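Support request, please re-run this one:
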Amino acid sequence: MADAGKDPTLFTAHSLPSDRRLWASVTNAYLGTRVYHDTLHVSGIYNGALGDTHRAVLPSPLNIQLEAPAGTGEQLTTTFVLDTNTGSFLHTLEDSSFRASQRIYAHRTLPHVLACRVSVTRLAPGSQPITVPLQSAFSPESPDLALHLGPDFQGARYLYGHTLAPEQLGAPQQEVHMLWTPAPPALTLAEGQQHRTWEFLAVVGGSQAEAQACLTEALQLQASSALYAVHAQAWARLWEGCGLDVVGPLALRQALRGALYYLLSALPEPGAPGHVCHGLSPGGLSNGSREECYWGHVFWDQDLWMFPNVLMFQPEAARALLQYRIQTLGGALDNARNLGYQGAKFAWESAGSGREVCPEDIYGTQEVHINGAVALAFQLYQHSTQDLQLFQEAGGWGVVRAVAEFWCSRVEWSPTEEKYHLKGVMPPDEYHAGVTNSVYTNVLAQNSLRFAAALAQDLGQPVPSRWLEVADKIKVPFDPARNFHPEFDGYELGEEVKQADVVLLGYPVPFPLSPQVRRNNLEVYEAVTSPRGPAMTWSMFAVGWMELKEPRRAWNLLQRSFANITEPFKVWTENADGSGAVNFLTGMGGFLQAALFGFTGFRGLRRACLRHLLPGEQARLLLLRGLGDGRGHKVSFPCSAGRIQRSVV
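Re-run finished. Output below.
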């Protein structure tokens, strides 16, 4: 289907996949859609109560497709390109007499704006009009919003309304206001004209005034023919300061580029004023309608799988992700109280309030390891940036303290073992529920408590003695005879596990392991990890084998991730058979971590050691550009087979 050539930044095809879920997405931090899709999603706009809450469907007026002009024959060439350089999707129709191009993009610096730009160019002598039909089916209706047409504004149509049901009883219904410039049935390059461009906009805001202000700003840029140029320049600046590439197989280069592109698309423009983060969901902002891609909820995926990459490249955006957890702390406190515990229990599935919105109670009740992932994200941020203001004044300390209080109330003392136990939990391996002493969960609890104690000292806060007591005495299952970590008390060798679990100890979870124990953990669980599990799993095995300086084993496992990358637009699926969430940012996050932290041995700016990247000459150079040290500097790591060089600018 696709012939991407040698450029890893352009994903090209001459036809679209038969599965529409795999069509390219265009998103920014506020708006998201798939190309040629009738739905827009707005960050933070959910409809439905509690376990029924999901991203609200806003009808898209820019579901516009070019059609071939009358009279064009078999010589017509159709091309579709996802251009990661400019954050846009390009559809081109061309024969010997004309070229019609359509570019769709979510504006990088005007996040409330989605744009469709159509150009028609005459290629052959002649002056006859060229008419390009447009296929568009827009209906101002939504299953999630009560919508009404209002008065036009500056030539744009106006649609406004509110969600049908708030997430929490008694909460206000969320407002949505959209202005758009409607597309005609066809566009005509008039007689004698050589070239013409049309632009159609959709602008969304939380109020009429906001939507009008954003449209006015977009129209001002449009009047000076700068709307697209400003967007493209912003992407150019982003890539100039942020890059990841290898000299190696094209498929690997494209996979890295695509994963980084989709992740960066979800983040705000650096320095964007007034941005309020509503979290990152596994399927991104282009997905998440009811019964789709986990309904747009926020999981541990954000904190464990996506956050480390964001922190390395965009510390400001990483801080915004932490602020999402801060602003939903009230809901997390309610979750813990409803379960009978102190402190905060962050929702396994979170939306606007932070209250648990998982449709199935067992996950929300038992997957308490989410708390450890949240605390670890705060720990990584503090370690990397030394930004105490987040903790002293912006609410970060409240999160870290509340997580510690939850662990201390959730553990039970075992007089027989003289250890604290965590009972009735579900580890990341969701094939096992109600277990006692998940080693991953317990180590995360231990790590959270020790971080809370250390941070308290830095902030001049009292350190409750119970925090370190529980940290020191919580059970960490270990089998001395076999020299490995059982997944939980009673785990039998050979039991199938769903996904990366114990192998997360050492990286990304800081935990000291001897090389032999690390090896044994990898070998035991590699043999029993389900091939039907989610995409991020094999990346973590690859990191482990890179730590042990076995690049061939690492590469063999990392290659399994390619089964989740679909052609031609490098859209990831959650599972290798194509099922589950699509545009699966979680899998992309794991893959990027394998490059950022596995290939290099990088563990933050205080320590970096070069690993062999891949066996033989498959990849001999890794370029990491724009890694932030959290102090306003950017760091580059050109890596080659024998050395690693750091430069700070």
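The radius of gyration is 25 Å. The chain has 16 helices and 27 strands.
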